[in-house]
């Protein structure tokens, strides 16, 4: 979309917001004046208003662009598809893969009408792309949440598991590249690596009818991550963790405990693993103990 077309679209959106009572004339005039002085996009200026009805803006933008609109704060993405688009391209294009159905990958974008970006995403993924609209500041926040400040691959390469037995007698578990690239293995490694990077004390993985919610406890507060493991993958993820913790994977009816030892960036970390049966599968709780901080 050319700059002039985008400006005209923003003007129409702003007028609709005004007509439907989502903003006042004073707020609109203030945003327009600030936009002219700072040469910023009008929609970006409106988003900075604390009184703006964001759902109203999202709906009107979707109607204007004639594409589905999603609120990323109310939408759980499938972490199994995050690697379909290379991290650097996801950040460059501000594109978040949400889920895949029948070789069609749904991606949230602030500019779903950008045909050039969509063509590049289809080439990179080898899949048909279904673009949906999300607000740009929500995309920025969730890109940071999903991919972190650093490339998660660097963290995964430094993650070494050991068999229980202490630092001296513990034996490193060798994982070849083919196994490390399996989606379930990679996902579990990513959950653990990200938890260590964020100084998490506990990981709670709670199954439900719609999938498994992941929560990290950081500084005493339990916070849900902005993605959910699909229900079809929860049993495989739980089994992978149980294997690492030397827990009987065939037993799912009683609580079990185990331990994972991790070496990460020259830090020795004990992970105490507990599993509990629930109606939707096994809940997993992992407590991370960094020996250097004890």
Category from helices, strands and their pairing: alpha+beta
Treating each run of at least 4 consecutive H or I residues as one helix, how many helices? Answer: 12
Alpha carbon gyration radius: 22 Å
Average pLDDT, to the nearest integer? Answer: 82
If strands are numbered along the chain, what order do they take across the biggest sheet? 4-8-9-10-5-6-7
- The secondary-structure element order is HHHHHEEHEHHEHHHEEEHEEE
* Silhouette: elongated
Q: Are there runs of 5+ residues with pLDDT below 50, and where?
A: 166-181
Query: Care to count the β-strands?
Result: 10
Strand content: 25-35%
Percent helix among the residues? 40-55%
* Distance from first to last alpha carbon: 55 Å
Sheet with the most strands?
Answer: 7 strands, antiparallel
Concise summary:
The chain has 294 residues and is an alpha+beta fold.
List the topology elements.
Elements: H1 3-19, H2 25-38, H3 42-47, H4 54-65, H5 87-93, E1 96-101, E2 104-109, H6 115-125, E3 128-133, H7 136-147, H8 152-157, E4 159-162, H9 166-169, H10 177-180, H11 183-197, E5 202-208, E6 211-218, E7 221-230, H12 231-244, E8 256-264, E9 267-278, E10 281-290
Parallel strand pairs: 2-3
Antiparallel strand pairs: 1-2, 4-8, 5-6, 5-10, 6-7, 8-9, 9-10
Helix pairs in contact: 1-4, 11-12
